[in-house]
Structure of Cysteine desulfurase IscS:
Amino acid sequence: MKRIYMDHAGTTPVRKEVVEAMLPYFTEKFGNASTVYSYGREARKAVEEAREKVAALIGADPKEVYFTSGGTEADNWALRGIAYANKEKGNHIITTAIEHHAVLHTCEDLEKKGFKVTYLPVDKYGRVRVEDVINAINDKTILISIMHANNEIGTIEPIEEIGQVLKNLDRKIYFHTDAVQTVGKIPVDVNKLNVDLLSISSHKIYGPKGVGALYIKKGTKIQSFMTGGGQEFGKRAGTENVSGIVGFGKAAELIASELEEQQKKLSYLRDKLIKGIMENISDVILNGHPVDRLPHNVNLCFKYIEGESLLLNLDLKGICASSGSACTSGSLEPSHVLLAIGLPHEIAHGSLRLTLGRDNTEEEIDYVVDAIKEIVEKLRQMSPLYNQKK
Ligand code: PLP
């Protein structure tokens, strides 16, 4: 059966060029990057070249890029590292209600340790208001963490504007952004955004899983995340994942060279998919910002049906997508993001996220629109709520 992959915000396939770049670092170039003999020097050189490539993708100095085990670790490090290193200055953190759980659960844990966290609301498109961020600042605020774009609904947040305001304050408040979903999709420049910390993940940009990076601006007061050896400039101990880092570097280099072209192609396919669905199916809501959204993100709610049933039926037709619901502790909770934009539970349950990638085609869009139309009609025929409405 034909398979159509439309869950690129979940993960992406590793590119052939990336696998080829990685392979030698498992076998003939297996050295530990911290050793002085030739094997080690070879590995060190590869790690530093990868650091340069990742730094170039976000406009950073390579010395400001610290490799981690992924986006989750980068988020954990940014929040805990800043909180604990600056606790004598204050204990207040500002974030939003729609962050990834890597940020939200870390904030909840910090609250248990005595920190105070403000979770800002968002508007109906999922955007935080710059004035709400400013108004939430008090004299104990040490850190603000706001994602660059939301992973579920694709809304891009006003990071540059917030960064600009924070830059002009008369005291330092660190600014972190989780850019896991934007790096490689839209231009990301740490200086333009005015951020001190920025999280990235390799597997969202056609690199391997289990590797990522945290950008830490020079001069930032932050605790080490892992203690042990002196790797990553003494701030993140542990023998480097050399092959993973090499793959991440290659993926960063490739995506940087085609960013503009991909952004154009993906937005075209995204708009075709949205139009196809909205014109052919009734009672559909587009979630997220209509314009300020990621070029590859489509998130919709289909009234009167469950997102899970839609997903399972799509899977039977070979289509891989995602729904906003997460099945936790036996209860099917709708996504915290969809609830935060004001959707009622019953509508939030009917959500579907389709995220496009470099290999998707126009024909696939047509196939997916037809498939969704057929499945939604079938499920609605079986829905008591839909039949009541009629
Ligand atoms: N932050 C955001 C916005 C994400 O979308 C994800 C992954 O889905 C992460 C963090 C976690 O990244 P990783 O899977 O590399 O741990």
User: Anything to note?
Assistant: The first strand starts at residue 4 and ends at 5. Residues 326-331 have pLDDT under 50 and may be disordered. The longest helix spans residues 242-280.
